[in-house]
Amino acid sequence: MALLRWALLSLGVILVAVALVGAAVVFKDQQAAQASSAAMPVGTAAPEPGEFREIKRTDFRIRQLSTYEFSPSEATRQLASKHAAWRGPNRRVWYEVSPKRIGPSTPLVILLHGAGRDGLSLIEIWKDVAAREGIALLALDSIGSSWRLEDADPAFLVSLVDKMVAHHGIDPARIYLFGHSSGAFYAQYLLNRVDGPWAAAALHAGYAPSNALQRPATPKPYRLYLGAEGHIFSVETARALGRGLAEVGHDNELVIIPRHTHWLYQVGPQIAADAWDWLDSRPR
Predict the structure, then answer these.
(1) Is this structure's pTM higher than 0.85?
(2) If exposure means fewest CB atoms within 10 Å of the residue's CB, which of 154, 208, 258, 262 is most exposed?
(3) Could you tell me the CA-to-CA distances from 232 to 167, 228, 272 in Å, in that order?
(4) Three-class SS of residue 181?
(5) How far apart are CA 244 and CA 267, in angstroms?
């Protein structure tokens, strides 16, 4: 009798495992179909070259730190509304911040955090300029600790943006990306490879590898902030990538910051304010 119960239990476990694997496969197929439908078409005609500019900026207030510690403040945790939903086998978490006054001209900045962080880390950086300028913020957590292309689900991000446009009066012409480090990698990928609602991107301390990018049918502009003393993403590679992407139509700027490293969180509010000035000055 005990043997029969053990056999039935084992069979039940096997059936549940098979069902979960089957559900994961179905979700991956659905995800691939959605990603394909959202993909930026590849440019077929010879592109009109964009402009690459390199700028050295010495006006950021860079302080040398004895310790590198950061966590979002309690004020940020209270400010941001946290949301979660299951997306296939993945529980997706995201944060939203709406300005006190919303209307048809409200801009939206999508925030993509660095490795090992979450969406709150960039809301901390952006909350002051968002309050001052009336910007809505959307910060999505990655699947796992970092943004990986094999986990990319741009259709889900687009669906979140669509809901914010519908519910918060976002101006569809004023939607932008901002990413740090791993999030900058993903933001550049979205700008180049996904036919999304974003008009431009500002990146800090990160970029996508050239083999992840293509000649897009609709090239959009970006600006990359990079510390001269950064140890993960090199100035030389960023420069070569910027020139290459200009050749396929992307207007882009490389902003070199002397004495600055990969660490965003001391200079972050200054970067956010400067990035917003640049993003909001893009032609619409």
Answers:
(1) yes
(2) 258
(3) 39, 11, 21
(4) coil
(5) 29
